[in-house]
Amino acid sequence: MLRHSGLSGDFADLGLRHSREAAIQQAAAAAAQEHAAAAALGGGGGVCLVHVKALSGRRLSLHLPSNARVGDAKGLVAEQEGLAAEAVQLVCGGRVLLADGRALRDYGVTPGALLFMIPTAL
After folding, report:
1. Domain 47-119 carries which CATH code?
2. Do 117 and 81 meet the contact criterion of CB atoms below 8 Å apart?
3. Pairing with 61, which of 10, 37, 101, 117 sits 20 to 30 Å away (CA)?
4. pLDDT per residue over 13-44, tens digit each?
């Protein structure tokens, strides 16, 4: 006599294992894409995570190379917020990050830092 309940349990376990493996593969692919994007910005000295809070209250997480410039961060924020990069100002620790060509670290931005995005009038 064939026991149907045992077979369905095995198939259910197989389905859960497959979906878990698919989720792990998707997460790995997303991490690889973020790393590649950061490297394309001129990284190579490692990647750091910086958080940006927009006026809308939305919080963005940026994976940037350790030697990223202010303009790189502004460009990513502008892209995610649907704004022109020229319309974005970033503030960290009360300092406005004005020079797009300067490194974020020149302004004291460290991994895990919280920046604030302020839209500017064009």
Report:
1. 3.10.20.90
2. yes
3. 101
4. 555 555 666 666 665 555 556 555 544 544 44
